[in-house]
Design brief:
This protein is mainly beta. It has no helices and 12 strands. It has strands at residues 8-17, 20-22, 25-28, 31-40, 43-52, 59-70, 75-87, 97-107, 114-122, 127-139, 144-157, 169-170. The strands form 2 sheets. A 10-stranded antiparallel beta sheet has the order 1-4-5-6-7-8-9-10-11-12, with no helix packed on it. A hairpin with a 2-residue loop joins β2 and β3.
Length: 171
């Protein structure tokens, strides 16, 4: 759903995914994922839900709020905060909530390959992530196609929601 002047957008999606990978770490295998995304006047909000269909995955709900600003004709900066809730945490004593703040610098030229860099920090898991990406969105008569390639570095304590006090470090 889009407003006539494109200042308002609302998108609902739901479907089956073969894997749920976040920051290069597999959180679940086959899972059902649903998302409600909205934006208005530079503000963006999203609620995302992932329910694993196999044992061993983590059921997760994410809610995020952010704002973006155009820095020039083809560049932008976006600041986002995301709350993670791990439903029925499978590890006894593990935290069920986490919060991550992120800053993303990107190029936004239409019909081009657009580079971006995102830097994020998770306050619960003391995780720092840096992700470089390039993507291109193409609108067609049947819908939008997004091609994206990315790579990054994640350095964190407690890669998965483990028991409190674990001193695991992974990159």
């Amino acid at each position: 759903m889009h407003a006539a002047d494109e200042s308002l957008s609302l998108t609902l999606s739901s479907g089956l995914a073969s894997d749920h990978v976040d920051r290069g770490i597999e959180r679940a295998g086959t899972s059902w994922q649903s998302s409600l995304y909205g934006s208005v006047s530079g503000w963006k909000g999203r609620v995302w839900y992932g329910r694993p269909l196999d044992a061993g995955g983590v059921e997760e709900v994410r809610s995020s709020l952010g704002h973006d600003w155009k820095l020039g004709k083809a560049t932008a900066i976006e600041v986002t905060g995301t709350h993670f809730w791990y439903v029925d945490q499978p590890v006894s004593g593990a935290p069920a909530h986490s919060f991550e703040g992120a800053v993303r610098f990107s190029s936004i030229a239409p019909e081009r390959w657009n580079p971006a860099i995102e830097i994020a920090y998770d306050i619960r898991y003391h995780a720092t992530a840096v992700e470089l990406s390039v993507e291109r969105e193409r609108l067609t008569g049947v819908g939008a196609w997004l091609r994206r390639a990315y790579g990054g570095q994640v350095s964190e304590r407690d890669v998965l929601p483990d028991a409190i006090g674990a001193t695991l470090r992974d990159t």
